[in-house]
Write a sequence for this structure.
């Protein structure tokens, strides 16, 4: 880390986390591309690297890069918020290497071993075959240790230094985040019980604890990038926590409509998950309102300069406000009511929602945090966009939105033909898959996937070189 | 001067967040206890005594399963009927059936079924949903799969297909060979049969209602 302006060890560790996160983001896109090609050309890498393997790496890399970037974000903001160096930073660094090594081994086993016999050994050492949390059991235990170390550092730092509202929320949120992982670690022969607890991890992560994490990061970003008033920002944050947990925890019911669980989840799931978009509206208004307010205060003083001190990062934060609301809020609400979900559950509709929600709610703001780290590392006061920033931002965003639209169109065919008309059988499934609208949807998804992947290279180039550009205020 | 409003007080919102989160969590935990009771797996005596469980016991593989419209609930439910041979037997003991189901469920995970198929609607969308695959007319006496695999029963045809999927292509998109052994295939078919007997509140709707459907009787 030559020429670094960073004096805080916590921030240095954050940049390591961001580096691995960006690498895994690339892996996510690469294997997503393989899977997208297989929809269009079914023989592609058949019995070499099958769809199941490509897709497993696609979604695992997604989860893991986001966790890495989340850990990095916390290590980045802790010194700023608490006013002290992170406690236990040496342990944090050791755990970083343990985590990175474990992830590397897991991915290599996914690629080169792929499947195992139907026994416990495969579960322990190859993968658990449970969507999103496929990691084998040895890695589960390792991840638990790493997460506990991370949470311990956060708590010790928060208790020793200045415990701001943002740090308080993060402490409560991260311990829930880590603790929930435990509910996805056991094996059962009862698939209904299996999926019931599986959702405790998946849903209570992405529709509760991760969203609260995003609220905290957005709050930190608004304070550091446009100088928003802490008291206002933290009040919004508490309101968001109230609304997110108030709707999201019981909103879990919308995953319990059809897995063998009782009917009362229809009503509970419908009501609370229908409320889930509300906090996302609040977060959207919050970001744009504060921006307008701070810029207005400057204008009132007769100053004609932007209040934003990091243009690329703030762009990603604003994209987060839009993307979270659209991808998680609107695309989620589309199919959250049981009357609709009966036909959309397990179709490309879900996939469309998944793409825009993970991107809009999480990828955007975490990329924004990477730009904040680049700014800090290079000692820049006001960081401006470069041509690569513009290309990266528009190609990645355009690509993901394009994929979402394409998958939504394909989803309609799935819903109308496979489900409503043909009754979801094997034959009905392939009737839907061979529809012209479905096939074209998959073609366009691949095109838009290539656009996204190209944008990723601009992003990497920009993250590596923007700090050296000369048009920033130093 | 008006008094400062409680609505702009951070401590008020902090407490609201704590209370509402706590309340929602307690409600979720309470519902989890209730649901856990309702989704625990049944046993052989439930099946023999006609006790309806949302998730029947493993010996459900000894019985015929159909998917029928329930007038009162206004959607289809699995109905467990008379005895039916499964790989030539209809007298699997509780222990034998549980062992088969265990092998099949483990296999469904280690072979990574869920990253192409959906199970109970969850998973990937690259291959057909397996929730009620056991009841799919394609595997029945009038379907194409028994003739294709040269087998005379549904379970044998399924097991044969699972062991050599790329020998029996039905579409350009094929299932890859996953090294499934004969015993594992038997377990997987038992797992599929068991899954089809789970009460999924009518999901998937109209399953098998197209030509050659397994509807009722």
């Amino acid at each position: 880390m030559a020429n670094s302006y960073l004096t805080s060890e916590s921030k240095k560790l954050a940049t390591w986390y961001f580096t691995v996160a960006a690498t895994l983001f690339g892996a996510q896109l690469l294997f997503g591309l393989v899977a997208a090609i297989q929809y269009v050309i079914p023989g592609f890498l058949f019995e070499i690297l099958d769809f199941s393997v490509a897709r497993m790496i696609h979604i695992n890399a997604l989860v893991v890069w986001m966790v890495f970037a989340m850990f990095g974000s916390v290590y980045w903001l802790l010194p700023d918020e608490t006013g002290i160096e992170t406690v236990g930073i040496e342990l944090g660094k050791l755990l970083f290497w343990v985590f990175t090594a474990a992830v590397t081994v897991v991915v290599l086993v996914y690629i080169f071993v792929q499947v195992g016999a139907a026994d416990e050994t495969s579960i322990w050492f190859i993968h658990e075959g449970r969507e999103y949390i496929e990691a084998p059991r040895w890695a589960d235990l390792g991840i638990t240790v790493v997460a506990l170390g991370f949470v311990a550092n956060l708590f010790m730092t928060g208790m020793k230094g200045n415990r701001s509202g943002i740090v308080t929320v993060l402490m409560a949120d991260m311990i829930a985040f880590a603790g929930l992982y435990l509910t996805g670690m056991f094996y059962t022969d009862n698939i209904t019980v299996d999926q019931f607890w599986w959702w405790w991890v998946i849903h209570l992560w992405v529709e509760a604890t991760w969203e609260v994490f995003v609220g905290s990061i957005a709050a930190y970003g608004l304070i550091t990038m446009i100088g928003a008033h802490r008291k206002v920002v933290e009040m919004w944050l508490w309101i968001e926590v109230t609304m997110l947990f108030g709707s999201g925890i019981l909103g879990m019911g919308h995953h319990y409509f059809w897995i063998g669980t009782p009917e009362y989840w229809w009503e509970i799931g419908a009501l609370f998950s229908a409320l889930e978009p509300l906090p996302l509206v609040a977060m959207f208004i919050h970001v744009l309102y504060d921006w307008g307010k701070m810029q207005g205060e400057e204008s009132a003083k007769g100053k004609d300069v932007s209040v934003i001190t990091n243009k690329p990062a703030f762009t990603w934060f604003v994209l987060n406000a839009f993307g979270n609301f659209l991808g998680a809020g609107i695309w989620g609400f589309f199919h959250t009511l049981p009357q609709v979900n009966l036909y959309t559950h397990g179709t490309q509709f879900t996939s469309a929602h998944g793409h825009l929600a993970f991107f809009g709610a999480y990828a955007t703001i975490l990329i924004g945090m990477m730009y904040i780290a680049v700014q800090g590392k290079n000692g820049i006061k006001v960081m401006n966009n470069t041509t690569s920033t513009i290309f990266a931002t528009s190609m990645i965003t355009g690509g993901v939105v394009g994929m979402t639209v394409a998958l939504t169109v394909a989803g309609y065919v799935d819903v109308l033909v496979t489900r409503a008309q043909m009754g979801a059988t094997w034959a009905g499934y392939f009737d839907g898959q061979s529809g012209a609208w479905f096939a074209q949807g998959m073609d366009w998804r691949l095109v838009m996937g290539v656009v996204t992947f190209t944008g990723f290279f601009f992003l990497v180039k920009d993250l590596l070189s923007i700090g050296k550009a000369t048009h920033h205020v130093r | 001067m008006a008094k400062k409003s409680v609505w702009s007080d951070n401590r008020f919102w902090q407490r609201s967040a704590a209370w509402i989160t706590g309340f929602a969590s307690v409600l979720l935990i309470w519902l989890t206890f209730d649901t856990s009771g309702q989704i625990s797996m049944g046993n052989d005596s439930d099946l023999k005594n006609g006790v309806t469980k949302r998730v029947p016991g493993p010996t459900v593989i000894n019985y015929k399963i159909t998917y029928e419209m329930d007038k009162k609930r206004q959607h289809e439910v699995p109905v467990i009927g008379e005895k039916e041979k499964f790989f030539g037997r209809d007298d699997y003991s509780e222990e034998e059936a549980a062992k088969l189901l265990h092998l099949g469920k483990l296999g469904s995970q280690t072979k990574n079924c869920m990253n192409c198929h959906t199970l109970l609607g969850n998973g990937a969308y690259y291959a057909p949903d397996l929730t009620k695959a056991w009841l799919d007319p394609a595997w029945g006496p009038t379907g194409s799969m028994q003739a294709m695999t040269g087998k005379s029963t549904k379970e044998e045809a399924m097991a044969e297909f699972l062991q050599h999927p790329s020998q029996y292509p039905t579409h350009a998109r094929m299932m890859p060979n996953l090294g499934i052994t004969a015993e594992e295939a038997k377990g997987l078919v038992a797992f599929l049969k068991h899954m089809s007997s789970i009460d999924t509140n009518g999901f998937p709707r109209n399953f098998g209602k197209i030509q050659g459907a397994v509807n009722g009787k």
